Amino acid sequence: MGHFAMSDDLNCTCYRLRRADRRLSRLYEAALADTGVSIVQFAVFAELERLGGLGISALAKRLGTDRTTMTRTLDRMEGLGWVAVQKADDARLQRHVVTEAGRKVFRDAWRGWRRTETAIAKAMGGERLALLWELLGEAEKAARAANVAAE
Fold first, then answer.
1. How far apart are the C-alpha atoms of 44 and 19, rounded to whole Å?
2. Going by C-beta distance under 8 Å and a sequence separation of 6 or more, which residues neighbour residue 32?
3. Entry pTM
4. Cβ atoms of residues 48 and 96 within 8 Å
5. Domain ranges of the chain
6. Which BP terms from GO are recorded (predicted)?
7. What is the C-alpha to C-alpha distance for residues 136 and 79, in angstroms, rounded to an integer?
């Protein structure tokens, strides 16, 4: 049966990625639990801090989600006082930035994230982790190419 031959594991890229995602997400969510920050919110914090603020569409694109989901996440974070909208004359140029309260929460969350990130790097080894990141980038590109081919 070609690549569907019997093995101890399901020969499905999507299944394997989802299973690994669930296991890793549980680790990171546990590391962040005391701060009240989800792993998605952590990624939003990280991008906003790294780039000094972004609009909803740009942030959604960078984090690989849709605008509606990003809007809900940012609305929650804004309601908690973690982010604020930086107004502009042109509504298209408005962007979200991290507030002082958000920076404190992010610093606390970063400690738990860093411990988990370090543990994963130690368990895998730096070279293997770098290879994983490279392969995940290639998988994303392959998925985009397959999506274009399917249209």
1. 23
2. 38, 39, 42, 109, 112, 113
3. 0.84
4. yes
5. 13-149
6. response to stress
7. 33
**Calpha distance 107→128 (Å, rounded):** 28
Amino acid at 108: D
63-94 pLDDT, tens digit each: 999 999 999 999 999 999 999 998 876 666 78
Q: What residues contact 64, with CB distance under 8 A and at least 6 apart?
A: 140
**Both ends of the chain: CA-CA distance in Å?**
27
Residue with tokens 């543990």: 119
pLDDT tens, position by position, 124-145: 999 999 999 999 999 989 988 9
Domain 13-149 annotated CATH 1.10.10.10: yes
Question: Count of CB atoms within 10 A of residue 43's CB?
Answer: 19
